[in-house]
């Protein structure tokens, strides 16, 4: 570590310690929860894509529930999360999966993230889901 970095680190540490000892409290605000209408619109878009592919006969509320469960664990906005789920399902299809739908991806990812975990970026979970499907031989 160079001297300038040490000085900057020491100054930062001093400020943090001063804030801690002064009784200053730091409040962490929870992330905003997307509106139910935004969640439902994204869920229904995924359902429409599955229906167009002839891949589902599931009711609309199944997609709403699955999308809401996943969105509660992710920091992404509904449309971003929708695009990530769609991309994952398309990737699985390209790898040879005949059984994975957007709904199975939603349910699989939501089930894999413990509810007690803080909300986080879910893109890595989607990548891991694809790798797990390959590792288990579900797709080739």
Highlighted features:
disordered N terminus; mainly alpha; 6 helices; 140 residues
Walkthrough of the structure:
The protein is mainly α. The chain has one domain. It is built from six helices and no strands. The chain has helices spanning 3-21, 36-52, 60-71, 78-94, 102-112, 123-135. The radius of gyration is 21 Å and the shape is globular.
Question: What is this entry, summarized?
Answer:
By secondary structure, the protein is mainly alpha-helical. Helices cover 64% and strands 0% of the residues. The protein has one domain (32-135).
Distance between the termini: 47 Å
Going by helix content, strand content and strand pairing, the class is mainly alpha
Structural domain count: 1
Tell me the strand percentage band: under 5%
- Tell me the helix content: 55-70%
Number of discrete helical segments: 6
Low-confidence stretches: 1-20
Radius of gyration: 21 Å
Number of strands: 0
Query: Can you write the helix and strand succession as a string?
Result: HHHHHH
Average pLDDT works out at: 79
Q: What about the largest sheet?
A: none
- Gross morphology is globular
Topology summary:
Layout: H1 3-21, H2 36-52, H3 60-71, H4 78-94, H5 102-112, H6 123-135
Helix pairs in contact: 2-3, 2-4, 3-5, 4-6
């Amino acid at each position: 570590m160079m001297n300038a970095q040490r000085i900057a680190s020491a100054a930062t540490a001093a400020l943090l310690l001063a804030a801690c000892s002064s009784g200053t409290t730091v409040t962490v605000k929870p992330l905003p929860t997307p509106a139910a209408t935004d969640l439902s619109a994204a869920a229904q878009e995924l359902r429409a894509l599955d229906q167009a592919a002839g891949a589902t006969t599931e009711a609309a509320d199944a997609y709403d529930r699955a999308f809401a469960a996943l969105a509660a664990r992710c920091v992404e906005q509904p449309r971003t999360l929708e695009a990530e789920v769609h991309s994952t399902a398309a990737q699985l299809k390209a790898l040879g999966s005949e059984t994975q739908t957007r709904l199975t991806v939603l349910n699989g990812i939501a089930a894999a993230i413990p509810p007690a975990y803080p909300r986080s970026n879910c893109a890595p979970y989607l990548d891991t889901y694809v790798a797990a499907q390959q590792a288990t031989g579900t797709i080739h």
